[in-house]
Amino acid sequence: MSAVADILMHAYAMTPADCLAWRQRLDARDLRLLRDGGKVAGTLVSIRKGQWFGGRSVPVVGVGGVGVSPLHRGQGTATRLMTRLVQEARESGAALSILYPATQPLYRRAGYEQAGARYETRVQMSALEMGERTLSLRAIESRDEAAIAACYTSVARFRQGWLDRSEFSWGRVRNPRSEPVHGYLVEGSAGVEGYVYLARRPLKDLKQELALTDIVATTPAAARRLLRFLGDHHSLGTEVVWYGGPDDPFLLLLREQSYSVKVYMHWMVRVLDVVSALEARGWTPGLSGSLHLEVTDELFPENQGRFVLEVADGVGRVKRGGEGRLRLDIRQLGPLYTGFQSAASLRSVGLVEADDASVQAAMALFSGPQPSLRDMF
């Protein structure tokens, strides 16, 4: 663990206090080490969770904390780490692996590709005085955690790409590494209808901004009450910042466009198992169709070859064979799968080979809202 802390301090410029907080949050069973000559040369964290696609939770392995000792850089250490990680992740039964890249070439060599984005939303606090106080609001207590998790799930399952959170992910919401977080919930006749977790970040001249680690509302009244609560900080506050997608419904409640939305970072996906990935996700109810794929994958022979995807009644079924009319590498299957890039867009830059009918079929089957992520990991 001492060697891991040293690697992370070099890789991410983390302070000793940050490393200690990171270690306290980590389940040691999720830590992976690569040794060279008896010394720890590299490390990463493998985190089991789910990710929502089409209203169904797809089993994924998230990758974080990838670091290589300064003495072992430029020797293929990170590539060896990632190759072994995706092999282990596939063996565990996960359909996908996801990560935020510090550098893309490394992860592309392991079969990952951009497949969605995490967006930063900043709202001027003065725009949040919305006059809604009908629902009660109180501080969150430990006994509320199950109800809050259910509240989150009821929203996240309809947000393409959001996490089906593990305890690790909830820990990042409730207890981030470097700042105290306070939680508040909104209650109505049916119980918890919304909540927010926030940190107050000091600025100059006694001002502050509110940094939200999560905000969710399941009713219009709860959404307005939460925004009103955030607006009540305007005497000393400047902005409220949170993360999610480009289509955040909270912004539709604002009178003016007193906000900015920008890409914070693109995340990447690696399809570990073609068949299980396509069959695990949900599909648009009432939509039916078929797609003949031909996939190449240098790492997993099981993913190589031709597959036929048949979609009906919100369910996908995959069988071997077919005509292979849409040809792509495993990397390009990632952004197609999440809906981040259409088959037409991928074909336009030479990353997919397909006839027009197959492109149109793929665009219909994989259509939906832009995939996004709220959580870091």
Automatic annotation (TrEMBL):
Transmembrane segments: none annotated. It comes from the Bacteria. Residues 1-135 form the N-acetyltransferase domain. GO terms for biological process: aminoglycoside antibiotic catabolic process. The keyword Transferase applies. Pfam families: Acetyltransf_17, Acetyltransf_9, SCP2_2. The keyword Transferase applies. InterPro entries: Acetyltransf_17 (IPR041380), Acetyltransferase_Eis (IPR051554), Acyl_CoA_acyltransferase (IPR016181), Eis_dom (IPR025559), GNAT_dom (IPR000182), SCP2_sterol-bd_dom_sf (IPR036527). GO terms for molecular function: aminoglycoside N-acetyltransferase activity. Keywords: Transferase. This is GNAT family N-acetyltransferase. It comes from Myxococcus llanfairpwllgwyngyllgogerychwyrndrobwllllantysiliogogogochensis.
